[in-house]
Amino acid sequence: MRWKSDGRMTTFKKKINAVRGSVFKNLAKIVLSSDHQNVDTINKAKVRRVLVVRPNHRLGNQLLMTPVVQEVLDTFPGCTVDLFTGKVSPILFRNYERIERIIRIPRKPFDELLKYIKAWLLLRSKSYDLAINVSRGSSSGRLAMKLSRATCKVFGDPVETLAREHKDYRHIAKYPVYNLRHALSKMGIADANIAIPPLNIKLDAEELASGKKILDSLIENKEAKTICLYTFATGTKCYSEEWWLGFYERLKTQYPQFNIFEILPVENVSMIGFKAPFFYSKDVREMAAIIANAAVFIGADCGVMHLASAAGTPTIGFFSVTDPETYGPYNAGSKALITSQLTQDDIFNAINKVLC
């Protein structure tokens, strides 16, 4: 059944998705009004099975759950972890030990209804000692928590005291960790009060070597450091070609001793008109391995910016419409710059502090 010519099929799908969204919101109201299952204490040594819930398909959102997964694995060294999440997670978590099962919900439930139903049934097929909801604003995430068979559940609701204690509590990758530590402290597991783990895709030595080989094939001076650009972003987060071309010309002038290359998006477009050496791939681990061999990554807020951060490369993120306190990169050497409040000189002064 293909009604593309008059748009009726597209309209029908939109109506189905709207109904699905309404159903989840109504179910979420039930979840929000119900008591959150919990226990007074938890035996750290006996936590064997943990469920982490983040039913979302965006690359950035799945990377942003890596800190809380690391926190769980570090806190409970005898446990295994299941993920209830999106399609790309098996790729992102490939090198994580003790990830036992990844339940993937389809990106388009209407097109893969049976797989969608199966994912929710699988959620009920195993019991857990602990379940953690990563996104407090996700209706489907809260529903998954309610349906999960977990003894202890951390729903991730905002905690006012944590917001006062931690100035970075708003960060989307950090607050699930703060919330988990807070919940566990109430159950007898003391908060070690250490730094929140950074995003981490856990590239192995073979991947890093392959990334270096590809990067070396793109650049002229293999002895010099390299700047990686990513000039694309979705919607209003994307800067204009004029903006990027002006930035690129100054970058070449100010850093003639550096190589400059561009990672291209899946859309295969360049906001600098392919003026720099470029690389295209749909393999996110390959992209991460190449970026990991660069001295700095520069790009607007997007999934690939988070990929660069997860690769461990100092990351300079440009922000124009989104909140850097929520989405900014925070691995070593990284900066989040609100470009509307800065001159070009200000931006390059920030880059200097990273490169020099």
Task: Give a quick set of tags describing it.
11 strands; 2 domains; disordered N terminus; 356 residues; alpha/beta
Domain count, please report it.
2
Q: Can you identify the CATH superfamily of the largest domain?
A: Glycogen Phosphorylase B
The radius of gyration over CA amounts to 22 Å
Structural class: alpha/beta
Specify the CATH class of the largest domain: Alpha Beta
The separation of the N and C termini measures: 59 Å
Shape: globular
Helix content: 40-55%
Q: Assign the CATH architecture of the largest domain.
A: 3-Layer(aba) Sandwich
Helix and strand succession? HEHHEHEHEHEHHHEHEEHEHEHEH
Put simply, the count of helices is 14
Residue-averaged pLDDT, rounded?
91
Poorly predicted runs are: 1-6, 30-35
Largest sheet: 6 strands, parallel
What fraction of the residues are assigned to beta strands by DSSP? 15-25%
Describe what you observe in this structure.
By secondary structure, the protein is an alpha/beta fold. The chain folds into two domains: 33-186, 3-Layer(aba) Sandwich (Rossmann fold), CATH 3.40.50; 205-355, Glycogen Phosphorylase B (Rossmann fold, 3-Layer(aba) Sandwich). It is built from 14 helices and eleven strands. The chain has helices at residues 8-33, 59-63, 66-75, 89-92, 113-123, 139-147, 160-165, 175-186, 205-218, 241-254, 284-292, 303-310, 324-327, 344-355, and strands at residues 49-53, 80-85, 99-104, 127-133, 149-154, 226-230, 259-263, 278-279, 296-300, 315-319, 335-338. The strands form two sheets. A six-stranded parallel beta sheet has the order 8-7-6-9-10-11, sandwiched between helices. It has a five-stranded parallel beta sheet with strand order 3-2-1-4-5, with helices on both faces. Strand 6, helix 10 and strand 7 (259-263) form a beta-alpha-beta unit. Helix 1 packs across helix 6 and helix 9 (205-218) packs across helix 11. The chain starts with 7 loop residues before the first helix and ends with a helix. The relative contact order is 0.11.
